[in-house]
Amino acid sequence: MREVYRPIGGKLLTRHFYFMGVLVLIGAFFMARRFIFGIGDVANLSDGFPWGIWITYDVVTGTAIACGGYAMALLVYIFNRGQFHPMIRAALLTSVFGYTLAGLSIVIDVGRYWQLYNVFLPQYANLNSVMLEVALCVTLYTLVLWIELSPAILEAMKDNRHLRQVRHALFFFIGLGILLPTMHQSSLGSLLLIAGYKVHPLWQTNIIPLLFLLTAITMGYAMVVFESLYAAVNLDRPIETDLLSKLSAIIPWLLILYLVLRISDLVWTGAIAALLKPGPEPLLFVLETALFLYAIVNLLHKERRVRPRVLFWTALATILGGSLYRFDAFLIAYNPGPGWQYFPGVGEILITLAIIAVEIMAYLFFVKKMPILLAARPARLGAKA
Amino acid sequence: MNIDRRAFFKIAAAGAATALCPASAAARPPKELPPEAVGILYDATLCIGCKACEVACKAENDMPMAHDTPLERAHGVAGTWDADNDLNSRTMTKIKVYTSGTAAVKDREEDGFSFIKRSCMHCVDPNCISACPVSALTKDPFTGVVRYNPDACIGCRYCQLACPFNIPKFEYDKAFPKIVKCQLCPDRLAAGGIPACCDACPTGASLFGRLPDLLTEAHRRLTFKPGERQQYPVRRLDGDEQRAAEVTGYYPKVYGETESGGTQYLMMAGVPFDKLGLPPVGDTSRAQLSETIQHTLYQGMMAPTLLLGGLVFAVYRRTHAEQEQEDASEGVEPATEAREGRRDA
Q1: Residue A111 and residue B8: Cβ atoms within 8 Å?
Q2: Do B157 and A111 touch (CB under 8 A)?
Q3: Is the ipTM of this complex over 0.85?
Q4: Domain count of chain A?
Q5: Is residue B1 part of a domain?
Q6: pLDDT per residue over B132-143, tens digit each?
Q7: Quick one: A64 and A31 in the same domain?
Q8: Does A51 lie in the same domain as A39?
Q9: Whole-number CA gyration radius for chain B
Q10: What is the reported pTM?
Q11: What is the per-residue DSSP string for A299-310?
């Protein structure tokens, strides 16, 4: 198989781009405050809610949304669906920035950031800590992602010597790049096991690693569809309806598996009874499930699946459902005890927005300047693929 | 084409099998009490709420006093009260009060009140230690005291999430923050002394001792009948200071004997512990469950290594075939456009 990737070119400094730049500057101001005056100056974090949106959105949800590269590699290299190969680079790109900026968020969130390297020192390692596994795995995977993306950068630089060297070792990094997210996306869920009663019974379960892994992969596929449609609309690219429709066909089955596992586990442990208790939690659970059911119902239909509009909304519903699942588990349905409350502070939100803005700016820079997106395939090559 | 997938399933099945089979056998046993374990027995029925323990704790640990400006202004005083109303990053021990209705009688659930002293429970099987990625929290192998090492700590605050008692506190207001928690006055213990809070307690409500002895003492007190006069040791269980007091009756439980796998800070009171704000923790430590699940999945990295081998093999086979095909075709057709556009794997 051979694909032609091209930088799509075009003006980089659009109004859209400048707007993102302003968001980044505002965020940078609050980041500076955080480092000068402490976390409490910008964030509403407390001893009861030690983790807020920086962890829940930027790290836990952000890396799940960035699972496109992982999910596509799984499909192409392990399940041998070569037809999706052309979409891998774009998927990798969103993964690279999702993970890199999750790393940046960790530096902002962590209190004693100047000692962060202790995580890599064997004398401090605590092999019982789920957090250690997540920290090492996410760092390593971020490096692997850059290596996986490096051919695109080396091509843009016309550095053929290094390009050849990278290509020879790439199979190993692709393999590693499938293993690592399998480990840490499940462990991001396992982080909550130790919190016990603080996590609402509808979310606290021993199979939480499996549920986090499944939703992360599903969100990865949904993000690839979403990103492709975004590029089609905003960057004037042809809509790859045929491939997107085939890709979206996987999503309902993963979601069905997830719902069957989650609900049967709730029934098995009896935690399902919590659905009948008053409070917002049962509604949140229903909302998550409804978002997933919406995607399932629409995507199971072969005729509906070919409509770009359906593809867009189901992808969005899947991403929102998976994100809500993470927000519920880590924040909304998290209750450390009476007297504690959390709603993100203004500075806290603006820092997160700045990080999202950096992601979008970096995405635009890369697709415009580097060979990431597929050039329209010549019929000859298209037929061969 | 399907061979790779079959190979993958084989590898995945092997990985899953190694990961899941010895699951029950590998369950991590609960942690045992260290041989020289020491602790504190807090008896709310003896506590008079004088807060001498709080003052002594702050003096011993050089912690600043908290000011409540409106309160101080209203009374025209300053520095009279240490105004924090709960544990925080400058308060490691705190006397709190439960009241009900008219609050007429001490240590009664209805229309009564009770004090409760909160601080680190020094769990036998601490969640915070299991959670900490960099071993900044450790348990002394002899005394069992849970200690904090700021030189290791990265400030991730997972210990705060993990602790069922919400004990570790973090200095959110500082540019270079630390975790703050009771470490049972390590300097005093090393010199053969007792923690400042127990030393300062005039009634024996906070009593220091070896943990097995404290448990025996606690169960001795549970046999007391209300109205009796009994001898209570003061400051330390193995000292000779004693005082006689009238028994007001106990809620039949020693909190901390089993909670979260047992704690080295034990509590007794006249009212149920949930009324005193103690959380509904089970009898096993969540650390035990978390470690059992995690180590079952990882099996000392055996399962991930096997899986990695399978994954790399599958990817290699696929990309290798592709590359050969491409090399072959490159010889035949003079690649023009295709040369520029690269295969990336």
Answers
A1: no
A2: yes
A3: yes
A4: 2
A5: no
A6: 999 999 999 999
A7: no
A8: no
A9: 29
A10: 0.91
A11: HH-HHHHT-HHH
